[in-house]
Amino acid sequence: MDLKPCIKKIRASGMTVKGWAAKRKFNYQTVIKVLNGFAGKRQIGVTAAILSQLKKDGFYEEGKA
User: Where are the beta strands (DSSP E) in 1-65?
Assistant: First the structure.
């Protein structure tokens, strides 16, 4: 699953990935890892929460990323 288009969508909205992570109370490094496809199994709950929030904010559509 390639989530790099989400980075472009976040930036296109006028926000940085770091700003989005802070606003949503996620660790920036974890968000970057998820968006680059490096989230490990121990992070599965956090990964799901990040993906869920990206969907709610309109930056991620399942099946398109």
Answer: none
Residue 16 identity: T
Kindly report the average pLDDT of the chain as a whole number. Answer: 89
Cα–Cα distance measured from residue 20 to residue 64, given in angstroms and rounded to the nearest whole number: 21
Residue 22 above 90 pLDDT? yes
From the number of C-beta atoms within 10 Å of its C-beta (0-12, 13-18, 19+), residue 37 rates as exposed
Cβ distance 11 to 17 under 8 Å?
Answer: yes
- What's the CA gap between 25 and 16, in Å, rounded? 14
What is the tens place of the pLDDT at every residue in 44-58? Answer: 789 889 999 999 999
